[in-house]
Design a protein that fits this description.
39% helix, 6 strands, alpha+beta, 2 domains, two-stranded antiparallel sheet
Length: 173
Amino acid sequence: MSKRTEYLLEVVTVEWLAERCHEDGDCLIWDGLVSRSGAPVMRERNGSVHVRRLAWAAYGGRSLGPKERMTTCDNPRCLARDHLKPTYVGEILSKMVNRPDVKPRIYQALANLRRKTHAKISLADAREIRASPKTPAELLGEYPISLSMLRKIKRGEAWKEFAASPFSGLGAR
């Protein structure tokens, strides 16, 4: 645990949270700064800190892993003890797809997650693209990739192939 985290965990207590929030029904609404997504944040010397994680620790919760986030009720500024629950990022994204205010960002995030694990074309497809006499604009409908990616493949910047082994010539010593 870093010194900064230790310091913040000492500063943020249940009483500290109560001073900076107001009650709205059974929710405890954060009155301070919020991020673009509406999550409660606090400014520090080195940037901003998500207050939900600090609130979770102040309420006595276990420490969260890097892929875990705090979800609350429908109000993104809520810090009530009963409304905080550690959840993985994938679960949060799948729930937020139906919200019209964040739909474009969620679709982009889901697309990025899918893109990291599944290639849209194979090495054989890249070889065909490079060998084709057609321009990238003419090839656009034939492959499920963007025009800019087709151009990069044609120029040899993406899907590179190396003819020789990087270990050739080293030999045993």
